[in-house]
User: Fold SGNH/GDSL hydrolase family protein from Streptosporangium vulgare.
Amino acid sequence: MAVSCLVSGCSLGGGATRPLAAGTALPPASPLPAPLVMIVGDSFTVGSGPVRAWDGYAARVARELGWQLITAGAAGTGFVNPGRVGRTFQDSFLKELSWRPEPNMLIISGGRNDRRIGAARIENAAVHLLELVRRRWPHTRIVIVGPIWMTRAPRWAYDVREAVLLAADRQEVPFLDPFEALGPHGRGWGRGAVLPDGVHPTLTGHVRLSRWMVSALRKHGVEARPS
Assistant:
């Protein structure tokens, strides 16, 4: 019965349907749903200056890889530093993301604003956030992106990077290191990549960040896919 229905086009619900005419094109199969990816971060992620979130590196990565993206966080925030808005990455996760349906992937990006905090506090805060995410969304893939510098990073920035890396290692979470893209001398992302403030990326800088991130995700084998 099943074979004859496939050939003739009859209904399995009891009523016969007309056979498909020769040469009739079948309707396209329904596409798989786009992976749902969420990202929490600082001004590099939510947008700053003339570059808004929809033109930033995260949105560009999402378009390149076919994600549905939800962006959370705020400028000036970090794993420990609440910034002017009064909330850390964990607070942003709880307020903006944790009540939503479980995504395919969560990206936590930042650490730059955790200056003068102390490496141990940063590491412990990052570990606590990762544990919280896992309890809330046990099936979600998690990725951490370290602090981003568009120019030569100061020495203390490497301490922050190491603290975030250690937290990722403790929780067995992939760590993407933007410092690797600074080149052997740590000089930056190239001409035209930084706004006049000397900190935030231009549109060109976001394009370069997005290209690096797509490559890094593929290198680590953590591209989000539909569940």
